[in-house]
Amino acid sequence: MNIFIINKKSKLLIYTSLLVLFIISLTWNLYSLREHNSTILQDAAEISLISMHIILTHLFFLIFAIILTYFVFAKIDKDMQKMLQQKELLMKQSKHAQMGEMLGMIAHQWRQPLNSMSASAVELSMLWELKNTKCDGVIKHSKFIQNQTQLLSNIINDFMNFFKEEKNMQQFTIKDMIDNVNSLMANQLSSRGIKLVYDRKSKIQIYNYKKELLHVIVNIFSNARDAYDDISLDLKTIFISITEDEDEQTITIKDNAGGIPENIINNIFDPYFTTKEKGKGTGIGLSMTKMIVNEMLHGTIEVHNENKGAVFTIKLKHNN
Fold it and tell me: How much is the pLDDT for 249?
């Protein structure tokens, strides 16, 4: 959502331009009248009357232009304010929706460590009841529970960092991004049999806002994850790659979940547009994804279908 705002300096410049045009036009007309008065008009009173008529006509059009411009500016300011409010509301709704999504991810990420801790505690309890609590066994189970507790703490830190505001660009690789995605979504993807495919050896460095790009990738991965819920496949993959040339870097994310129906593919980035059942989708995720890419990462995002899957292409300019 690109918004053009006319600031005070621009308004002053436009009003000044109107005044300058008024003075030039008036001066030219009066000069032309004086130059030709000897051949066209001989009566001085008539010349004065025509001059006054020219001045009043120009004043009328100047006042009319200023009033019209004022109301046009007022309408533009009102529309811009409304667009900014809608944008702010969309961002708030997106954040709330993403927080709900994150809670679901935390539940998935915590389930396995909690089950492991529970099993270890049960085994330790059984050993106690059987009077078989050797020191080594107790230490082993205690360390395991401590490690799992630390894992749970790290998961919370990862999710907290996900929502922290990022002010500075940083350098990272696609592997760094996938590591962050895995810390958030690994269990959700693996429980559905979805495999992430990417070039672990890629040395291409991205210099941009890492967390904003992470939001984008998580949103796209979440949509692919949901798409796989509706179909039965033996092989479910999400493929992500990066290439670059002199001008830009291109991140490609694709799946084999059946693609997006052609009759709606041009609408998927529209605010509140969703193909999910009522209560399961807000239609905000991809809209915010496009806004983040365009306005924060200063790039572009497009989507098309290819080989029975959706392909998202993100292009980012080099930031030197």
Answer: 93
CA-based max dimension of the chain: 130
Q: How far is CA 257 from the centre of its chain?
A: 24
Those residues whose C-beta lies under 8 Å from the C-beta of residue 211, and which sit 6 or more positions away, are: 161, 162, 164, 166
Structure-token pair, residue 285: 């995720």
Cα 288 to Cα 66, 92, 94, 161, 268, distances in angstroms: 39, 10, 7, 19, 11
Q: 239: which strand partners?
A: 197, 254
CA distance 109 to 46: 92
What is the mean predicted confidence (pLDDT) over 178-189? 82
- Cα–Cα distance between 252 and 202 in angstroms, integer? 14
Q: Where are the beta strands (DSSP E) in the chain?
A: 170-172, 194-198, 206-208, 236-244, 248-255, 299-305, 310-317
Percent of the chain with pLDDT over 70: 69
Q: How confident is the model at residue 250 (pLDDT cuts 50, 70, 90)?
A: very high
For 282-308, write each residue's pLDDT tens digit. 445 788 888 889 888 899 999 999 988
Distance CA 185, CA 194 (A): 11
Cα angle 2-272-191, degrees, rounded to a multiple of 5: 115
**Between vectors from CA 190 to CA 311 and to CA 122, what angle results, nearest 5°?**
165
pTM exceeding the 0.70 threshold for the entire prediction: no
Fold for 170-317, please state it. Heat Shock Protein 90 (3.30.565)
Question: Which two three-digit tokens encode residue 33?
Answer: 């009248």
Spell out the domain ranges in the chain: 8-91, 93-162, 170-317
User: Per residue in 158-171, pLDDT tens?
Assistant: 666 666 666 788 89
Token readout for 291 is: 């806004």
User: Residue 229 in contact with residue 276, Cβ under 8 Å?
Assistant: no
pLDDT grade for 2, boundaries at 50, 70 and 90 = very low
CA-wise closest residue to 200 among 223, 179, 186, 221? 179
